[in-house]
C-alpha cells in the first residue's frame, strides 16, 4: 500500500552507468536515455528532491549534466573522491532530512554496500531499478500539491536567499525590503486543502491553538458558508515560499471569530504573523465588527501569543460575545479586540484575492451553526508536532 511506505524525500544518484550510460573519465561520450530523463522529471514533479553522489572530477561532470539539460534538477551535488556514505550524509544533513527519507541509486554493489553499512536507514537501489522507481510506493506520494510540484525551486530559491543574506551587511530591515516580498491571501481551494492541513500539522511555534485540522474537517469548513478558510502564500525575488499560513474565520453578527491562525516558521523572520493579523483587523474595521480570537497556550507557541498581544488582542470581556457561550476547551482563551484602521505593511506587498464576496456581518441564524462547529473542531485536537 502506497500510504504505508515511508516516503522518499530525496533520491541521490550515481552518475557513471547509473544516471547516464558510460564512464566520463574514460572518455566515453556518455548518453542519457529518454527513459531515465523521464524518471528524473517525473520524480521532480512529485516533489521528490534529487541530488548526486559521484566519483568524478567536479567541473567536467557538472558541465556534462548541464549539457544534458538536467543539471537544474539536482540540489547540493556531491561530485568528488570521498566515500559516498559521507556524500549522502552531507546531503541529508544539509536538507535536514532523516536518513529514512533518503534513497541512493548506484550500479556498483560495493558503493551500495558502503552506503548501507554507514547509513543503514538509507534505502539503496541498483541501476537496474531506475526505470521502475516511479512505480514504487515509496516514490509515490499520497497527494501532490502545488507546493510539492515547486518544492525543488523553493529549495533552490532558499539556498540563494540564504547565501545573499549572509553576505548582506546592512540592517535586517533593509535586507527584508530588498527581497521584494509579496504576500497573497486568498480563499482556500480544493488544491490548497492538503497544503493547509500540512501547515496546521507542522506549524507548532506559530499555531495559535495547537489544533490540527484534518483534511476532512477543512473540506467541511470550506463548504460551510459561515466559515472562511484562507490560505496565505509568499514569494520574493528569489522564488516562491509556497503556502506559509492558514487562517480560519467564522463570521457572526457583530463579531468575527478567528479560530485559527498558523504560519510557517520559515516566515517568522518576515513578521508574517503580524502582517496577517493587521490585515484582518483592518478588514474587520471596514466591516464594522469586533474580533474574537482563540488562543491556547502550548509549549511552543509563545511567539504567536506575542503576535496577538502586540496586535492589540486582550482578555477584557465584551458584550459582543455574551450570547456566544464559553469555549468548549477550557484551555482556550478567548481574546478580543475592537478593530481600528491598520496601514499596509512597509516590508512587503500584500495582495488579497478570491475572498468570499460577502465580508459583511452574517445574519443571526448562522450563529447556531458556528457553535456546533466549535465543538467538532476541537475533537481533532492534537499535540503540536514538528516544525517546518
Ligand atoms: Zn466585542
From TrEMBL:
Residues 352-388 are annotated as: Disordered. Residues 368-379 have a biased composition (Basic and acidic residues). SUPFAM superfamilies: Acyl-CoA N-acyltransferases (Nat) (SSF55729), HAD-like (SSF56784). This is FkbH like protein. It comes from Streptomyces iranensis.
